[in-house]
């Protein structure tokens, strides 16, 4: 089990704009489950309170995770949309309430979706998958589908930097990220290669952990509305998953 939390802070006219993303990841030999809550006030292009509950489950295949089901519930006080996405080996299905006005130009195809993971599975599998000794730790691209928008995140290795955050300190690997909007976007936004509301490259620093994980511990971006936004890992720890059998027999043996 991995517990992981990112905190963000920026300022809008001297008013703090804060956010927190909490991830609780349970890994089993053949399956996984991730629960996440993302709560944001005024970060990037969100200028309303943004409270998203996310859950993903799926299968472990080799050294990576593969989405089976993804549910997102947004409680922004406006549409409060719930999205339920299921991806199988051959197809996918998505329901949204309220429904999307459209699925973008062009919409994502089945062939494209089958190569992706949901947003939180993509982040966690990127953090946990082992890297070969001679492989680029930034890796990528990350192929992400949230039920409507299909995105590739391309990562470029920019060397190392000493990082000191609440959850970790040490020599971290710096990656620069650009976004390729593949499908599911509005036509006038599909040709931009950056994250919404971000001006310039997104920078991410990875902590190479002793257990083989390479976890993002700091993310920084220059936004076009509120300036620099920095996310830092405030919690990061691993612990055994307690099964029902182990709970009934705590002595083992």
Walk me through what this model shows.
The chain contains 3 helices and 13 strands. The two termini are about 20 Å apart. By secondary structure, the protein is mainly beta. It has one domain.
Question: Which features would summarize this protein structure in a list?
Answer:
single chain, 253 residues, mainly beta, 13-stranded antiparallel beta sheet, 3 helices, 54% strand, globular, disordered C terminus, DUF3108
In short:
InterPro entries: DUF3108. With 253 residues, this protein is mainly beta.
Number of helices: 3
| Total beta strand runs | 13
- Mean pLDDT figure: 82
Order of helices and strands: EEEEEEEHHEEEEEEH
Helix proportion range: under 10%
Low-pLDDT windows of residues:
43-48, 243-253
End-to-end Cα distance: 22 Å
Shape: globular
What is the C-alpha radius of gyration, as a whole number of Å?
18 Å
Topology:
Layout: E1 2-12, E2 15-27, E3 31-41, E4 49-61, E5 64-74, E6 82-87, E7 92-97, H1 110-113, H2 119-128, E8 142-145, E9 150-165, E10 168-183, E11 202-208, E12 214-223, E13 227-238, H3 244-248
Antiparallel strand pairs: 1-2, 1-13, 2-3, 3-4, 4-5, 5-6, 6-7, 8-9, 9-10, 10-11, 11-12, 12-13
Protein name: DUF3108 domain-containing protein
InterPro entries: DUF3108
Organism: Hyphomonas atlantica
């Amino acid at each position: 089990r991995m517990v992981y939390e990112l905190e963000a802070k920026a300022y809008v006219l001297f008013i703090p704009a804060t956010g927190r993303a909490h991830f609780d990841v349970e890994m089993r030999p053949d399956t996984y489950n991730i629960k996440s809550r993302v709560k944001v006030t005024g970060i990037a292009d969100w200028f309303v309170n943004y409270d998203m509950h996310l859950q993903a489950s799926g299968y472990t295949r080799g050294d990576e995770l593969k989405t089976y089901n993804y549910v997102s519930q947004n409680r922004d006080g406006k549409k409060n949309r719930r999205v339920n996405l299921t991806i199988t080996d051959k197809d996918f299905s998505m329901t949204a309430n309220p429904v999307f006005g459209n699925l973008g130009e062009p919409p994502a195809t089945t062939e494209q979706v089958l190569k992706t993971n949901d947003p939180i599975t993509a982040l966690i599998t990127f953090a946990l998958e082992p890297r070969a000794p001679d492989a680029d730790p930034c890796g990528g691209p990350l192929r992400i589908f949230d039920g409507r928008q299909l995105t590739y995140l391309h990562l470029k290795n920019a060397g190392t930097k000493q990082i000191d955050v609440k959850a970790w300190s040490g020599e971290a690997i710096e990656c620069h990220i650009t976004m390729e909007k593949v499908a599911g976007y509005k036509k006038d936004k599909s040709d931009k290669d950056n994250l919404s509301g971000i001006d310039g490259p997104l920078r991410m620093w990875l902590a190479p952990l002793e257990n083989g994980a390479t976890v993002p511990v700091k993310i920084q971006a220059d936004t076009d509305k509120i300036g620099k936004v920095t996310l830092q890992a405030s919690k990061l720890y691993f612990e055994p998953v307690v099964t029902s059998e182990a709970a009934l027999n705590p002595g083992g043996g």
